[in-house]
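pasting for the record
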Amino acid sequence: MAGNTNIRSNGKPGISSRCLALMTMLIVFPLALAATPYQGEGYTMVTPSDLEWGPVGSMAPGAKISVIEGNLAEEKPFTIRLRLPADYVIAPHIHPAYERVTVLSGTFHFAHGEEVDRNKATALPEGSVAIMSPGDPMFGYTEEEVVIQLHGTGPWGIEYLDPEDDPRK
């Protein structure tokens, strides 16, 4: 995080506005190929077969994303799903806003921490929920295919603690 680290009043690392803008662009650009997500007018009903999946530019290859609601670059609500293959690792990272995760299928192993330590992870089976505060370091991994749903308010972004873990380079 060298060069882009801000320390928040609580002493935890924060995300600089320059870094947040770059992260948002790198996340949102690959989403241009996805189906048009709900934008808050009228109503929408979506079945799993309606979802269109695409690569996640801000995550290691193998992860797939479907944007159900919103634009991750705007200060508005969003809902996304991530499909993670078996034996997938999400390197330690932070987000600029609360992360609210619901496990829809499989078991997601998730933890607070600056290093991947499988002994610290909690196995979250289908139906489990995890909420992490902005700037809190976290990591996760799978042993089987997992689908998780994230929702919150944008703008959304991800900053890896070790720049070598960032696939956008």
